[in-house]
Design a protein that fits this description.
- InterPro entries: PPIase_dom_sf (IPR046357), PPIase_FKBP_dom (IPR001179), Trig_fac (IPR005215), Trigger_fac_C (IPR008880), Trigger_fac_C_sf (IPR037041), Trigger_fac_ribosome-bd_bac (IPR008881), Trigger_fac_ribosome-bd_sf (IPR036611), Trigger_fact/SurA_dom_sf (IPR027304).
- By secondary structure, the protein is an alpha+beta fold.
- Among the domains are: 2-118, Alpha-Beta Plaits (2-Layer Sandwich), CATH 3.30.70; 159-253, Roll (Chitinase A, domain 3), CATH 3.10.50.
- It is built from 13 helices and eleven strands.
- The strands form three sheets. Strands 6, 7, 8, 9 and 10 form a five-stranded antiparallel β-sheet that branches. A four-stranded antiparallel β-sheet has the order 1-2-4-3.
- The radius of gyration is 33 Å and the shape is elongated.
Length: 475
């Protein structure tokens, strides 16, 4: 086998591989001899089939295996001899001359093919000791804890039927049946029975609850509303609708009590234990938000410190994934690029920069993790898998089996675990300054942070699953 480098430009390499006819003949003969004792042909005793006859019957199929093995050997030889780290699988180009291919398959002519590669860029990890990052720290106050518990108590307060003939007031709970129509025709999801509706909660379509104020048990009312333009179900967005509503019961809210009994309803022994649990939960939420902002700051710092050529195919793949999400999001929201005050061309430029940033940071984090010999254990992956399985109650076994049988799916669980470990490792190389802030300050630029997250995520591990379109009901 003769291997010759024909191109070396940036991260692109091309090689010409020639397998002489004599070598093809030798490889074919070896393969045929290997199957001689395994095949059974009519008229021949096992192991006694002449090689010439085997060649006539199986020659082409065996030669196909010979060629594939030769391609695999060539790939391996190129990588090992040149100490290459590939960005993607090699691209093999067989000759277009059919006569040349036929002669090679008959071992009467040389087999010549090319292999195109893209290699990973080579770069050194930079010193980050002069990088200073601020970690915002929020401590849940007693007032915030009490407000949360008040909301919990309000959501779980008892309701009792109002006396017969008494009108519904804001804060009351109605039990209703409804049937919706658009242009006189009932629509899917527009019907409900025994639905609880808390007046003043603003959980139904704007205007729906207002038209039921003053209703009494047994009343039938016609409610006219307009679905919001941004309604989840596209076929209902912006449409006018009518609902025939029957009020089956009017219930007044009971006393709002915050005591040990309330805590027991939430599985706690006492009100103090409930407060501690709420405080702990709030602390986790604040810590998660703080880490997200800190991580973005770290990725921004890394992005400013590294500049190297990127494998074009990786960038293309990343851009394709990002762009598909952008287009799907616009479709789901019924928007256009003009609605977003941009053009498709400008949007493509912006998201290509995002794709390039993701690839660059992904390579940096990967090399940092490799350099530090960071590993993700099977136990850690199993814990992540268990957490994922719990998100699908009733389908646990199917989800578990899917991940266990799908290596790519398991890899998508492992990747974010690796990324977080590498981020922790890199954070250990910079100066961290903790800054106590208010909850409002932590979440003040939440919208910007979400946009920044989309642009800053270095790994493609966690892909947010698109939420299904809103159900077609008044909620």
């Amino acid at each position: 086998m003769q291997v010759t480098e024909t191109k070396s430009e940036g991260l692109k390499r091309e090689y010409q591989v020639v397998l002489p006819a004599a070598e093809l003949e030798t490889r074919l003969a070896t393969e045929l001899d290997g199957i001689k004792g395994k095949v059974q042909l009519k008229g021949f005793r096992p192991g006694k089939v002449p090689v010439a006859h085997l060649r006539k019957v199986y020659g082409r199929s065996v030669m196909a295996d010979v060629v594939q093995n030769a391609v695999n050997e060539a790939n391996q030889k190129i990588v090992e001899d040149n100490k290459l780290k590939l960005a993607l699988e090699p691209q093999v180009q067989m000759p277009e001359d059919k006569d040349a291919i036929e002669k090679a398959l008959d071992a009467k002519g040389d087999l010549s093919f090319s292999i195109a590669l893209e290699v990973m860029p080579s770069f050194d990890l930079v010193d980050l000791s002069d990088v200073s990052l601020t970690k915002q720290v929020v401590t849940a106050s007693d007032e915030e804890v009490n407000e949360t518990i008040e909301r919990m108590a309000s959501a779980n307060r008892p309701f009792e039927d109002r006396p017969e003939g008494e009108a519904a007031q804001s804060g009351d709970r109605l039990v209703i049946n409804f049937t919706g129509r658009i242009d006189g025709t009932p629509f899917e999801g527009g019907t409900g029975e025994d639905i609880n509706l808390d007046l003043g909660s603003n959980t139904f379509i704007p205007g729906f609850e207002d038209q039921l104020l003053g209703a009494k048990a047994g009343d039938e009312r016609l409610v006219k509303v307009t679905f919001p333009e941004a309604y989840g179900a596209e076929h209902l967005a912006g449409k006018e609708a009518e609902f025939d509503v029957t009020v089956k019961a009017v219930k007044a809210p009971g006393a709002l009590t915050i005591d040990d009994e309330l805590a027991k309803n939430f599985g706690m022994d006492s009100l103090d234990a409930l407060k501690d649990a709420v405080r702990t939960t709030m602390g986790r939420e604040y810590e998660a938000a703080s880490r997200q902002k800190l991580k973005k700051g770290l990725l921004d710092a890394l992005d400013s410190r590294y500049s190297f050529e990127l494998p074009p195919s990786l960038v293309h793949q990343e851009f394709a994934a990002v762009w598909a999400q952008v287009e799907q999001d616009l479709k789901n929201r019924g928007k256009t690029f003009e609605d977003e005050d941009t053009t498709e061309e400008k949007a493509r430029e912006e998201y290509r920069r995002i794709a390039e940033r993701r690839v660059r940071l992904g390579l940096v984090l990967a090399q940092a993790g490799e350099s530090a010999d960071i590993k993700v254990s099977d136990d850690e992956v199993n814990q992540a898998l268990i957490a994922r399985v719990r998100q699908f109650p009733g389908q646990e076994q199917q989800v578990w089996d899917f991940y266990r049988k799908t290596p790519q799916a398991l890899a998508e669980l492992r990747a974010p675990l690796f990324e977080e470990k590498v981020v922790d490792h890199v954070l250990g190389q910079v100066k961290l300054v903790e800054e106590p802030v208010s909850k409002e300050a932590l979440f003040a630029d939440e919208d910007d942070a979400e946009d920044g997250k989309a642009k800053a995520d270095a790994a493609k591990a966690d892909t947010a699953e698109a939420a299904p379109a809103g159900e077609s009901n008044p909620a």
